[in-house]
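Q: Predict the bound structure with flavin-adenine dinucleotide.
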Amino acid sequence: MTKPASERVVAIIGAGPAGMLAGLMAARSGAQVHLFESNATAGRKLLVTGSGRCNLTNAGIAPEKYAGSAKEELNQLFAVFGREELLTLLKEIGVPTFHTEDGWYYPVSESAAAVADALTAALRTAGAAFHLSTRVVGLERLGRGFRLRLDGGAEFTAPRLVIAAGGAAYPSLGSTGALFPALGELGHTVRPLRPALAPLVAEMRPFQRLQGVRLDARARLLRGKTTLGETYGNLIFTPWGLNGPAVMDLSHLVSAQPAEDLTLSLDLLAGPASAVRELAVTARKSDLPLRVLLQAALAPKTAQFFLDEARLKGDTALRRVPENHLQQLLGRLGDVRFTLRGVRGFEYCQVTAGGVPFEEVNPRTMESRRAAGLYLAGETLDIVGPCGGYNLQFAFSSGAAAGLAAGLW
Ligand SMILES: Cc1cc2nc3c(=O)[nH]c(=O)nc-3n(C[C@H](O)[C@H](O)[C@H](O)COP(=O)(O)OP(=O)(O)OC[C@H]3O[C@@H](n4cnc5c(N)ncnc54)[C@H](O)[C@@H]3O)c2cc1C
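A: Predicted complex:
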């Protein structure tokens, strides 16, 4: 028999993308939803995503793109609520989307604030109650339900609880990881929290002149001769290291081990820049200046840096460059090595690696396998995706699945 509405209470900790989707789904199923959020507004972190444009999801969503325990089970989660379900829901609540040529999805408005506003409005229409500026400072099992302790001393009890309190990334936006000890007390494993999608810190003295240079490269993370990870994408040289998607997508691997064992190798002649190698063959016997050859793909500043390093003159005709000098130069551009020092801290990273292992929840309902009536969603779990909308998709999917299940009596 269906429970009376007064007993179908779902408490949700965190009104980020995961908590808001959980709340919307549960409220639409007829449950009484109470969202507890320490910030004064919902979706505070959402506002900064995609540099304020909100990169919502990606055409390439697939379990193998993610890192984390039992990530192959993400198939089951995405079968319940995947990219298409997300796009349909967003459109329905007033957020039509488009995608770039490389498959990154954004709202047509290109406004993260508009997405947060539409989600908040949909939640209010569905009857969800927001408890803003309210931090949950403790929680415990109470019979078959849960008791939340709120700052200010009040308590709240509910038979079902969704924890969507995020991880420890970017703590100034609300999530600090403070609830993980309570999750441990409820029977969950909590893997050490590490920065992910973080800039890499590296020895940059040899590359000082390249500060501010932005380029596309293939990046390989090496421990000795073993390749731990490989990406291709954009990056920027900074005084303290390297930033941008190509290196951020490797950072969860860097933060997982002692940095002194790790090296980063950049191939500056990968992708379209391989045109330099082709031109070196076709123009080998020509008067093409060496500088012009490199500038076929590299910015003049970058080309000059590597010419100076190799003690080669840029206006030398290609036909006059000794073969071994040319091959050494091309070899160097294909394997620029950096000694890594680690990753920048939680204040500078976009997501958290570690947390509660995904294998400790049912991937179709996000219900805890340790505590009945408890649901986990979003960054609280140990799933990490690359740049490009993968993390928001996981937050939305896991939140929606949790809300669908928690709202059903
Ligand atoms: C600068 C930046 C840019 C990003 N850009 C993108 C992007 O373009 N695309 C993408 O896919 N991902 C992006 N991400 C990652 C994305 O924002 C996260 O994956 C996503 O926000 C995780 O959602 P969540 O709901 O799990 O956690 P959060 O968004 O962290 O939400 C958790 C909420 O819980 C609240 N909370 C925490 N503890 C308590 C408590 N004890 N009591 C009450 N409330 C609490 C917090 O205040 C917070 O509002 C970006 C992240 C950053 C930092």
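A: Residues 14 and 37 are 5 Å apart (CA to CA).
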